[in-house]
UniProtKB/TrEMBL annotation:
This is Formyltransferase family protein. ANK repeats lie at residues 302-334. It comes from the Bacteria. Residues 67-165 form the Formyl transferase N-terminal domain. PANTHER family: METHIONYL-TRNA FORMYLTRANSFERASE, METHIONYL-TRNA FORMYLTRANSFERASE, MITOCHONDRIAL. Keywords: ANK repeat. InterPro entries: Ankyrin_rpt (IPR002110), Ankyrin_rpt-contain_sf (IPR036770), Formyl_transf_N (IPR002376), Formyl_transf_N_sf (IPR036477). It comes from Pseudoalteromonas obscura. Gene3D superfamilies: 3.40.50.12230, Ankyrin repeat-containing domain.
Length: 396
């Protein structure tokens, strides 16, 4: 059987990897997105993965005439003409709760519209945009403090899971699709948001202002600027606004207090760089003054969060405080390197057993594998230092 995957990011890689490892009779072929430059970013490059794993690639026109059995569009960037394929198994996963939010920017628009749910939807591709019959759908909640980046990450994780769980039926079975309702349907084109000129309308209620900020918060693309300051998240206070909407009530290093149509809004200034710096040198006082619900699990371009930086530098006080306040002790960077893997680098410098034991007490999982399929013990084995291998073996 030949399966052609058109797409990008961790979802295309996750599904390709699963097929490669579990379905040996499948030949995989790839079609890359036009902007895949072969370099890993906050999402890994599908092109890079395919080159490293000897997966053949073709253009979309070649894919149409290739003798394939299934075409999977996983965050693919072009409109497909299903009738050009010689088979009918032409599928897409769309990041929304179809029939709602067909089209673009589905990590931003449901937040902007204050939706409480979204979904990943696996459907047949027909001649319209995200209009095909629905085969599988996984609905999940949009949290109060959801940002575009955290929602995108949910789409990637739930979407990969949905395709992998059903892969045998998708490839070998007869998928039955359900027609989309016309009544609940909505569509947004590329002109629905102008990312080059984002403006926040402050003449709105607190939740409406907050949701605008959260919907455009995606560090790898942009952060919102308010009064020329980059901001990251907003919290609604239980104080009725007395001033004109959009007035600054007060401001300090950490936040701007804003008046809105109804309640006052605490808008946090972005301070990730300072927070990472304080985490690296176990400066608990500084970490306490900088931390808020939005930056506690925030990551820089390398995928480093405060807890990852603290783990690498052995900042135990900061790690304990971060965990107590909601940080993920099993957080990973863009390559899947876990907090415990970072911590082992510090521990090995002085064979500090207690340090790793404390992390395990806090919930660190020693068996996590990164995106190359390697765990902490594999990495220590690669160094070929017997003393280090023996030291780490005790944590297995
Ligand atoms: P993208 O991968 O282009 O997919 P889509 O528009 O189909 O969702 O973008 C993923 C999300 O990233 C998108 O839903 C909204 C967000 N985004 C930004 O925050 N800024 C930008 O400049 C772009 C292009 C996207």
């Amino acid at each position: 059987m030949k399966v052609i995957i058109g797409g990008k990011n961790n979802i295309a890689i996750g599904v390709a990897k699963h097929i490669k490892e579990n379905l040996p009779d499948v030949e995989l072929v790839a079609v890359f997105n036009r902007n895949d430059d072969g370099v890993d970013g906050h999402q890994l490059s599908f092109k890079k993965y395919c080159l490293e794993n000897d997966l053949r690639s073709v253009s979309l026109d070649e894919a149409y005439v290739e003798k394939g059995d299934v075409f999977l569009s996983l965050e693919f960037d072009r409109i497909i003409k299903p009738s050009k394929f010689k088979h009918e198994k032409v599928f897409n996963i769309h990041f929304s709760k179809l029939p709602q939010y067909k089209g673009m920017y589905t990590s931003a628009l449901p937040i902007l519209n204050n939706e409480s749910e979204s979904a990943v939807t696996f459907h047949y591709i027909d001649d319209g945009i995200d209009t095909g019959d629905i085969i599988y759908q996984k609905v999940f909640s949009i949290d109060l403090n959801e940002t575009a980046k955290s929602l995108y990450s949910k789409y990637i994780n739930y979407g990969t899971q949905l395709v992998i769980e059903n892969i045998e039926s998708i490839l070998y079975g007869q998928c039955s699709g359900k027609k989309q309702s016309a009544v609940d349907s909505s569509y947004y084109s590329s002109s629905s948001i102008n990312y080059r000129c984002l403006e926040i309308d402050l003449n709105k209620t607190a939740i409406e202002v907050k949701k605008q900020i959260d919907a455009f918060t995606f560090r790898d693309y942009q952060l919102v600027e308010l009064f020329s300051t980059k901001v990251l998240g907003a919290e609604i206070l239980d104080e009725v606004s007395g001033l004109k909407p959009g007035s600054v009530i007060s401001e300090n290093e950490q936040f701007i207090l804003l008046s809105t149509v109804d309640y006052n809004l605490k808008v946090y200034k972005d301070c990730l760089d300072s927070l990472l710096e304080a985490s690296s040198c176990n400066n608990l006082t500084e970490v306490k003054s900088l931390i808020n619900p939005f930056n506690i699990n925030e990551k820089n371009e390398k995928g480093w969060s405060p807890i990852i930086v603290a783990a690498y530098h052995g900042s135990l006080d900061v790690i304990a405080y971060l965990v107590e306040n909601g940080a993920d002790i099993n957080d990973i960077n863009n390559n899947g390197t876990s907090v415990f893997m970072y911590a082992k680098n510090f521990a090995l410098k002085s064979f500090n057993r207690e340090y790793l034991e404390k992390l395990i007490d806090l919930g660190a999982d020693v068996n996590l594998k990164d995106f190359h399929g390697l765990d902490v013990f594999d990495y220590v084995a690669m160094n070929k230092q017997q003393e280090q291998i023996e030291f780490m073996e005790k944590f297995r």
